Amino acid sequence: EAGVAQSPRYKIIEKRQSVAFWCNPISGHATLYWYQQILGQGPKLLIQFQNNGVVDDSQLPKDRFSAERLKGVDSTLKIQPAKLEDSAVYLCASSPNTPDDYGYTFGSGTRLTVV
Amino acid sequence: QKEVEQDPGPLSVPEGAIVSLNCTYSNSAFQYFMWYRQYSRKGPELLMYTYSSGNKEDGRFTAQVDKSSKYISLFIRDSQPSDSATYLCAMRGGFKTIFGAGTRLFVKA
What does the pLDDT look like over B60-71, one tens digit per residue? Predict the structure, then answer.
Protein backbone atom coordinates (compact mmCIF):
# COMPACT_ATOMS: atom_id res chain seq x y z
CA GLU A 1 0.00 0.00 0.00
CA ALA A 2 1.47 3.33 -1.06
CA GLY A 3 1.73 5.90 1.71
CA VAL A 4 0.62 9.51 1.90
CA ALA A 5 2.59 11.53 -0.65
CA GLN A 6 3.49 15.16 -0.08
CA SER A 7 5.42 17.69 -2.10
CA PRO A 8 7.61 19.61 -2.00
CA ARG A 9 9.74 18.25 0.85
CA TYR A 10 11.33 21.62 1.56
CA LYS A 11 10.48 25.21 0.72
CA ILE A 12 12.15 28.49 1.61
CA ILE A 13 10.28 31.72 0.87
CA GLU A 14 10.43 35.34 1.92
CA LYS A 15 7.74 36.79 4.15
CA ARG A 16 4.69 38.10 2.28
CA GLN A 17 5.24 35.60 -0.56
CA SER A 18 2.78 32.82 -1.27
CA VAL A 19 3.35 29.07 -1.16
CA ALA A 20 1.34 25.92 -1.90
CA PHE A 21 1.67 22.37 -0.65
CA TRP A 22 0.24 19.25 -2.25
CA CYS A 23 -0.95 15.99 -0.71
CA ASN A 24 -2.09 12.70 -2.19
CA PRO A 25 -3.67 10.47 0.49
CA ILE A 26 -3.80 6.69 0.61
CA SER A 27 -6.19 5.39 -2.03
CA GLY A 28 -9.69 4.99 -0.66
CA HIS A 29 -9.13 7.04 2.48
CA ALA A 30 -12.13 9.31 2.90
CA THR A 31 -10.70 11.62 5.54
CA LEU A 32 -7.76 13.96 4.97
CA TYR A 33 -6.08 16.21 7.48
CA TRP A 34 -3.57 19.05 7.32
CA TYR A 35 -1.49 19.59 10.44
CA GLN A 36 1.06 22.26 11.32
CA GLN A 37 3.99 21.14 13.47
CA ILE A 38 6.17 23.91 14.83
CA LEU A 39 9.61 22.85 16.06
CA GLY A 40 9.37 21.29 19.52
CA GLN A 41 5.58 21.06 19.47
CA GLY A 42 3.03 18.42 18.62
CA PRO A 43 1.01 18.57 15.40
CA LYS A 44 -1.86 21.05 15.42
CA LEU A 45 -4.88 20.42 13.20
CA LEU A 46 -5.46 23.08 10.56
CA ILE A 47 -8.25 21.51 8.55
CA GLN A 48 -10.06 18.18 8.21
CA PHE A 49 -11.86 17.02 5.06
CA GLN A 50 -14.40 14.23 4.78
CA ASN A 51 -14.34 13.34 1.08
CA ASN A 52 -14.36 16.85 -0.43
CA GLY A 53 -16.28 18.57 2.37
CA VAL A 54 -14.76 20.44 5.32
CA VAL A 55 -15.42 18.86 8.74
CA ASP A 56 -13.29 21.16 10.91
CA ASP A 57 -11.34 24.28 9.98
CA SER A 58 -11.70 26.08 13.29
CA GLN A 59 -7.91 26.52 13.72
CA LEU A 60 -7.15 27.53 10.14
CA PRO A 61 -6.06 31.20 9.92
CA LYS A 62 -8.49 31.93 7.13
CA ASP A 63 -7.14 35.40 6.40
CA ARG A 64 -3.99 33.81 4.96
CA PHE A 65 -4.49 30.04 4.73
CA SER A 66 -6.75 28.20 2.32
CA ALA A 67 -7.19 24.54 1.44
CA GLU A 68 -9.17 22.51 -1.00
CA ARG A 69 -9.68 18.86 -1.78
CA LEU A 70 -10.59 18.25 -5.37
CA LYS A 71 -12.89 15.32 -6.16
CA GLY A 72 -12.31 13.95 -2.69
CA VAL A 73 -8.77 12.82 -3.45
CA ASP A 74 -5.76 15.19 -3.69
CA SER A 75 -5.54 18.29 -1.58
CA THR A 76 -3.63 21.57 -1.65
CA LEU A 77 -2.88 23.93 1.22
CA LYS A 78 -1.95 27.52 0.39
CA ILE A 79 -0.50 30.34 2.44
CA GLN A 80 -0.77 33.89 1.14
CA PRO A 81 0.91 36.03 2.35
CA ALA A 82 3.36 34.08 4.52
CA LYS A 83 4.58 35.32 7.88
CA LEU A 84 7.73 34.40 9.79
CA GLU A 85 5.65 32.46 12.34
CA ASP A 86 4.40 30.15 9.57
CA SER A 87 7.80 28.43 9.57
CA ALA A 88 6.91 24.84 10.43
CA VAL A 89 6.45 21.36 9.01
CA TYR A 90 3.11 20.91 7.29
CA LEU A 91 1.91 17.35 7.61
CA CYS A 92 -0.82 15.71 5.63
CA ALA A 93 -2.55 12.62 7.01
CA SER A 94 -5.39 10.39 5.92
CA SER A 95 -7.66 7.79 7.49
CA PRO A 96 -10.30 5.43 6.11
CA ASN A 97 -13.21 6.71 8.24
CA THR A 98 -14.30 3.28 9.37
CA PRO A 99 -15.63 2.72 12.91
CA ASP A 100 -12.18 1.68 14.11
CA ASP A 101 -10.09 4.34 12.34
CA TYR A 102 -8.47 5.50 15.49
CA GLY A 103 -5.15 6.40 13.89
CA TYR A 104 -3.91 8.34 10.94
CA THR A 105 -1.25 7.65 8.32
CA PHE A 106 0.98 10.68 7.95
CA GLY A 107 3.12 11.80 5.06
CA SER A 108 6.71 12.94 5.59
CA GLY A 109 5.67 16.57 5.54
CA THR A 110 6.78 19.78 3.87
CA ARG A 111 9.29 21.81 5.84
CA LEU A 112 8.59 25.52 5.29
CA THR A 113 11.07 28.22 6.22
CA VAL A 114 9.92 31.83 5.96
CA VAL A 115 12.77 34.37 5.99
CA GLN B 1 -3.82 24.60 31.14
CA LYS B 2 -3.11 22.58 28.00
CA GLU B 3 -5.48 19.73 27.21
CA VAL B 4 -2.53 17.32 26.88
CA GLU B 5 0.74 17.66 28.79
CA GLN B 6 3.87 15.75 27.85
CA ASP B 7 7.40 16.21 29.14
CA PRO B 8 9.58 17.12 26.12
CA GLY B 9 12.71 15.50 27.57
CA PRO B 10 15.19 14.70 26.19
CA LEU B 11 15.34 11.31 27.85
CA SER B 12 18.62 9.43 27.46
CA VAL B 13 18.90 5.76 28.45
CA PRO B 14 21.40 2.95 27.83
CA GLU B 15 20.56 0.15 25.44
CA GLY B 16 18.46 -2.54 27.12
CA ALA B 17 16.83 -0.20 29.63
CA ILE B 18 13.10 -0.03 30.28
CA VAL B 19 11.72 3.31 29.14
CA SER B 20 8.63 4.96 30.59
CA LEU B 21 6.92 7.77 28.67
CA ASN B 22 3.90 9.58 30.07
CA CYS B 23 1.15 12.08 29.31
CA THR B 24 -1.54 13.71 31.39
CA TYR B 25 -4.73 15.22 30.10
CA SER B 26 -7.63 17.31 31.32
CA ASN B 27 -10.52 16.51 28.95
CA SER B 28 -12.75 13.67 30.22
CA ALA B 29 -14.27 13.29 26.73
CA PHE B 30 -11.17 11.58 25.38
CA GLN B 31 -11.91 7.92 24.66
CA TYR B 32 -9.10 6.79 22.35
CA PHE B 33 -5.45 7.07 23.36
CA MET B 34 -2.65 6.68 20.86
CA TRP B 35 1.13 6.71 20.79
CA TYR B 36 3.00 7.81 17.69
CA ARG B 37 6.71 7.55 16.97
CA GLN B 38 8.36 10.25 14.89
CA TYR B 39 11.84 9.89 13.48
CA SER B 40 13.77 12.99 12.47
CA ARG B 41 12.42 14.56 9.27
CA LYS B 42 9.62 12.01 9.02
CA GLY B 43 5.91 12.10 9.76
CA PRO B 44 4.53 10.45 12.90
CA GLU B 45 3.66 6.75 12.64
CA LEU B 46 1.06 5.06 14.80
CA LEU B 47 2.61 2.70 17.35
CA MET B 48 -0.27 1.72 19.58
CA TYR B 49 -3.76 2.70 20.53
CA THR B 50 -5.98 1.93 23.50
CA TYR B 51 -9.67 2.43 23.96
CA SER B 52 -10.69 3.65 27.42
CA SER B 53 -8.78 2.34 30.46
CA GLY B 54 -6.51 -0.68 30.59
CA ASN B 55 -3.31 -2.12 29.22
CA LYS B 56 -2.29 -3.23 25.78
CA GLU B 57 0.90 -5.04 24.85
CA ASP B 58 2.59 -5.34 21.46
CA GLY B 59 6.02 -6.91 21.45
CA ARG B 60 8.37 -4.71 23.46
CA PHE B 61 5.74 -1.97 23.83
CA THR B 62 3.04 -1.68 26.49
CA ALA B 63 0.45 1.09 26.62
CA GLN B 64 -1.44 1.89 29.81
CA VAL B 65 -4.42 4.18 30.33
CA ASP B 66 -5.73 5.29 33.72
CA LYS B 67 -8.80 7.40 33.04
CA SER B 68 -9.47 8.00 36.72
CA SER B 69 -6.11 9.79 36.99
CA LYS B 70 -6.18 11.14 33.41
CA TYR B 71 -2.75 9.60 32.87
CA ILE B 72 -1.37 7.45 30.07
CA SER B 73 1.96 5.68 29.72
CA LEU B 74 4.04 3.88 27.13
CA PHE B 75 6.65 1.40 28.30
CA ILE B 76 9.44 0.17 26.04
CA ARG B 77 11.28 -2.95 27.20
CA ASP B 78 14.80 -3.87 26.09
CA SER B 79 15.21 -0.50 24.41
CA GLN B 80 17.31 -0.38 21.25
CA PRO B 81 19.22 2.45 19.54
CA SER B 82 16.63 2.20 16.75
CA ASP B 83 14.00 3.32 19.29
CA SER B 84 15.65 6.75 19.38
CA ALA B 85 12.91 9.09 18.19
CA THR B 86 10.27 11.50 19.44
CA TYR B 87 7.23 9.83 20.98
CA LEU B 88 3.93 11.68 20.73
CA CYS B 89 0.86 10.84 22.74
CA ALA B 90 -2.49 11.63 21.13
CA MET B 91 -6.03 11.55 22.43
CA ARG B 92 -9.31 11.51 20.64
CA GLY B 93 -12.84 12.42 21.65
CA GLY B 94 -15.44 12.48 18.87
CA PHE B 95 -13.83 13.97 15.78
CA LYS B 96 -11.20 15.82 17.76
CA THR B 97 -7.63 14.50 18.21
CA ILE B 98 -5.10 16.40 20.29
CA PHE B 99 -1.38 15.64 20.24
CA GLY B 100 1.11 16.12 23.01
CA ALA B 101 4.33 18.01 22.33
CA GLY B 102 6.37 14.80 22.19
CA THR B 103 9.21 13.36 24.27
CA ARG B 104 12.62 13.00 22.63
CA LEU B 105 14.21 9.65 23.47
CA PHE B 106 17.85 8.72 22.94
CA VAL B 107 18.93 5.13 23.43
CA LYS B 108 22.71 4.84 23.69
CA ALA B 109 24.48 1.75 22.38
Answer: 999 999 999 999
Interface test with B, best of A29, A104, A105, A111 (most B CBs within 10 A): A104
* A85 phi, psi to nearest 5 deg: -70, -5
Indicate the SS3 state at residue A34. Answer: strand
- Are B45 and A106 a contacting pair at CB < 8 A? yes
Q: Which helix (H) or strand (E) holds A98?
A: none
Express each pLDDT in B12-51 by its tens digit. Answer: 999 999 999 999 999 988 989 999 999 999 999 999 988 8
Rg from Cα positions in chain A: 13
With an 8 Å Cβ cutoff, are A91 and B44 in contact?
A: yes
Q: Which residues of B touch A42 (CB under 8 A)?
A: 4, 6, 88, 90, 98-102
Concatenated DSSP letters of B26-88:
--TT--EEEEEEE-TTS--EEEEEEESSEEEEETTEEEEEETTTTEEEEEESS--GGG-EEEE
For residue A57, the chain B residue with the least C-alpha distance is B96
